Amino acid sequence: MHNIRKNDGKDSSTGGPRIGSLPRPVGGHGKLGTFSGVFVPTTLNVLSILMFLRFGFILGQAGVVGVTGMLVVSYIINLVTTLSISAIATNGTVRGGGAYYLISRSLGPEFGGSIGVVFYLGFVFNTGLNAVGLVDCLKQNFGEVTGNWAQWLPEGFWWQYLWATVILIICTGICLAGSGIFARCSNGLLAILLVATLSIPLSSIVKKPFESRQLGIEYTGLSLDTFKGNILPRLTKGADGSQLRGRETFQDLFGILFPATGGIFA
Predict the structure, then answer these.
(1) Distance between the two ends of the chain, CA-based, in angstroms?
(2) Which residues of 28-58 are buried (b: 16+ CB within 10 A; e: fewer)?
(3) pTM surpassing 0.90?
(4) What are the φ/ψ torsions at residue 211 (nearest 5 degrees)?
């Protein structure tokens, strides 16, 4: 004989509340909280490797006006997405799954599952991108040939593949260790990124102008002429870091910049 469940949220066989009808308890020791669970992952996703390796390339091509316009468009998209997520989240109980649960409940399991797979693959590739970017930064500072500070880290394609694999294994171990270890590592990484970000404007004041023909760098320091030269877009062909055969386009530059602004799903 089948159990008959009424619409009032109670199970007729037991007289108690139906499973899943009540919201999940809030609080507890298993929760990361707003800071460690929301603010830190979102900030880490925004202050990603793209800002340190690609932002200069985007600024040199699009100029201050172009970068400002792309940032405005990006954050308008993020604002609309955030308002939509807030409207869906406050319209009912959010159970396990987070953003994927919201998408499935709004668009149905077919669309929600498809979008969830795309988001999962996006995060997987983003993790690999950050691992390779970290290895590239280590190689520029400590590589046997190209190191600026010291020259002890072996270079080469397979060595870079090995270091990136080690980094991914460490990240996997941190995730498997539990939310507490993950939160502490995230807080430490956030502190490092904040120091690195603040060192950028600080170094422009402390560092004297220099030129390195070997590295292809001409640093002018705080200069009004340099600022005027970087205001308007100057799309070129064959720039360092370019993946296009022709001139750069705003569509390509926006595709590079936008992932660095959308950290709400982190």
Answers:
(1) 46
(2) eeeeeeeebeeebbebbbbbbbbbbbbeebb
(3) no
(4) -140, 130
